[in-house]
């Protein structure tokens, strides 16, 4: 939120300006008042003022003197003059000093509001450009470091150990270290810390991502590793580093503080969310086992972000939240209530997140149930997944979607948007006859009447009958019979379902009526048709 300062020796003018504009709607949270230059400087020294509105002629100094001071001490502040003096020389001097506008009293509040909004837009653009430059500078700095980086033998040792190329025994570890003239007895125990990137806030190419991972690594080495040279940071996979820190009794509390500070700085400067999973001190031969425990801890974290998470051995697992019944969301989908549906899902997942009743398995089950519900909606609407989902959606892998509740929500929002858009287009382009056919297909097992179908498409039965006959060449009853016979043929030829059951599922109350209608349409009875067409099981 922004802050604004009004400087004028006329108190009623200041209060009029303050009351005449709805500052909060412009994004301004604080409006300061000053009635002389001295007070204005004090306020600007204590607070970050984004916009300055200033009179020119005032006792104890004028507005030009204040703007000159602002240009030196608060160069990011945008200033404008609001004065009674319609003097060209005044306006010229205001421009020379960098004033963004020069307005005359009395000013319309709508004009003032428009001017301030334009100034705020200018500030936002300038800040965005500064952020881009900052990111470019940071990226360029670590790119040069990354190019110059050469892996060392200790990193290769740790990677071999974690990949089980070196057996996790004292003898095997001692032998591998002695190859590098490093005595096993001199090595301390190590505290492993798994640094896992959960997401990048900016779109990065694979190359840029590798460089930023190096930035995370380099920063950890500078901020946390001691000068002994025994500590090491190892790349274990894309987006994950493992730090091996020599244990030092009494340093546990300091290490936690350093990790918390590291997470905060990475989030701020490297545009990412990450967690640090902190293990317990262990000798080298036990580090591989400890690392696997940290990976397991990481896989079950779907709710916490930008935190330090310690490995515990309590063995207690919280009860998982029950998976929701999604049929209600499916109906909202069909009715085009995607926005309301998303709000309900967000509220539900936020509740699960707050209670901590979710892990990776729960997330995967939720994801699969939601995907199944979506396919059922598409099937009911006569759509196929590949016709609806974009390439970006189809490329989303389940393991990426279920990394966290945040990732899951982003995927759900994208899915709802794409499906809702296609359903909306389909509803707009679908004819009345198409809707009637769809209704018939859904209610095939019921006693369908012309009135029921007409009511569904909001037309008079006689008018619908004329439209249906014109479009299909059949009456509604003829079409219903045709569809029932076609479905009966499939069931008779491809299943072993009892003929009485088939009759019931197609809306016929008794076998004889079904048999009569089927024979009338096909010239053979249902039993004879099954005998002629069914495959040998």
What is shown here, in short?
By secondary structure, the protein is α/β, with parallel strands linked by helices. 59% of the residues lie in helices and 11% in strands. It has helices at residues 11-20, 23-26, 37-46, 63-73, 88-96, 109-148, 153-162, 170-178, 206-223, 252-269, 284-299, 327-334, 338-355, 360-380, 385-388, 391-395, 398-401, 405-429, 432-442, 450-456, 461-472, 476-494, 499-505, 511-522, 526-533, and strands spanning 2-7, 28-34, 51-54, 78-83, 101-104, 190-200, 232-237, 240-246, 272-278, 308-310.
Which features characterize this protein?
Alpha-Beta Plaits; 537 residues; alpha/beta; 59% helix; five-stranded parallel β-sheet; 4 domains; DNA-binding transcription factor activity; flat; five-stranded mixed β-sheet; single chain; Rossmann fold
Write the layout of secondary structure elements.
Elements: E1 2-7, H1 11-20, H2 23-26, E2 28-34, H3 37-46, E3 51-54, H4 63-73, E4 78-83, H5 88-96, E5 101-104, H6 109-148, H7 153-162, H8 170-178, E6 190-200, H9 206-223, E7 232-237, E8 240-246, H10 252-269, E9 272-278, H11 284-299, E10 308-310, H12 327-334, H13 338-355, H14 360-380, H15 385-388, H16 391-395, H17 398-401, H18 405-429, H19 432-442, H20 450-456, H21 461-472, H22 476-494, H23 499-505, H24 511-522, H25 526-533
Parallel strand pairs: 1-2, 1-3, 3-4, 4-5, 9-10
Antiparallel strand pairs: 6-8, 6-9, 7-8
Helix pairs in contact: 3-4, 6-9, 12-14, 13-18, 22-24, 22-25
């Amino acid at each position: 939120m922004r802050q604004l300062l009004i400087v004028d020796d006329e108190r009623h003018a200041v209060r009029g300006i303050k009351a005449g504009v709805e500052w909060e709607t412009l994004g301004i949270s604080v409006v300061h008042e000053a009635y002389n230059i001295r007070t204005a400087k004090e306020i600007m020294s204590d607070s970050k003022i984004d916009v300055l509105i200033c009179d020119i002629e005032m006792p104890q100094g004028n507005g030009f003197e204040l703007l000159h001071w602002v240009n030196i001490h608060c160069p990011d502040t945008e200033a404008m003059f609001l004065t009674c003096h319609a003097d060209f020389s005044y306006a010229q001097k205001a421009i020379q000093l960098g004033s963004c506008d020069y307005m005359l009293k009395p000013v319309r509040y709508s004009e003032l509001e428009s001017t301030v909004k334009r100034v705020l837009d200018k500030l936002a653009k300038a800040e965005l450009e500064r952020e881009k430059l900052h990111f470019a500078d940071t990226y360029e700095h670590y790119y040069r470091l990354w190019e110059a980086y050469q892996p060392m033998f200790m990193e290769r040792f740790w990677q071999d150990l974690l990949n089980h190329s070196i057996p996790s025994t004292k003898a095997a570890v001692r032998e591998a270290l002695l190859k590098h003239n490093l005595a096993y007895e001199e090595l301390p125990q190590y505290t492993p810390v798994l640094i896992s990137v959960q997401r990048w806030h900016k779109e990065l190419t694979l190359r840029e991502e590798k460089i930023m991972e190096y930035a995370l690594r380099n920063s950890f080495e500078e901020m946390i590793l001691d000068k002994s040279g025994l500590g090491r940071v190892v790349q274990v996979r894309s987006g994950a580093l493992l730090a091996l820190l020599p244990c030092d009794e009494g340093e546990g509390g300091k290490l936690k503080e350093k990790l918390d500070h590291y997470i905060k700085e990475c989030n701020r400067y490297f545009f990412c969310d990450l967690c640090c999973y902190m293990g317990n001190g262990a000798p080298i031969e036990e580090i591989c086992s400890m690392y696997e425990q940290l990976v397991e801890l990481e896989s079950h974290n779907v709710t916490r972000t930008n935190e330090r998470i310690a490995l515990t051995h309590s063995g207690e697992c919280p009860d998982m939240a029950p998976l929701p019944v999604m049929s209600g969301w499916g109906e909202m989908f069909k009715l085009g209530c995607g926005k309301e549906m998303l709000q309900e899902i967000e509220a539900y997942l936020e509740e699960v997140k707050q209670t901590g009743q979710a892990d990776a398995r729960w997330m995967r089950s939720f994801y699969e149930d939601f995907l199944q519900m979506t396919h059922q909606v598409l099937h009911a609407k006569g759509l196929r997944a590949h016709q609806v989902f974009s390439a970006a959606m189809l490329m989303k892998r389940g393991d990426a979607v279920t990394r966290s509740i945040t990732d899951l929500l982003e995927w759900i929002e994208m899915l709802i948007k794409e499906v809702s858009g296609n359903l909306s287009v389909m509803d707009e382009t679908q004819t009345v006859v198409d809707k009637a056919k769809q209704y018939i297909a859904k209610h095939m097992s019921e006693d369908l009447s012309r009135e029921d179908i007409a009511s569904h498409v909001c037309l008079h039965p006689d008018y619908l009958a004329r439209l249906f006959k014109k479009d299909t060449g059949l009456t509604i009853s003829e079409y219903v019979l045709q569809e029932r016979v076609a479905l009966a043929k499939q069931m008779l030829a491809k299943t072993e379902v009892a003929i009485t059951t088939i009759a019931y599922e197609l809306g016929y109350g008794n076998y004889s009526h079904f048999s009569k209608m089927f024979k009338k349409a096909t010239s053979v009875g249902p039993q004879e048709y099954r005998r002629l067409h069914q495959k040998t099981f």
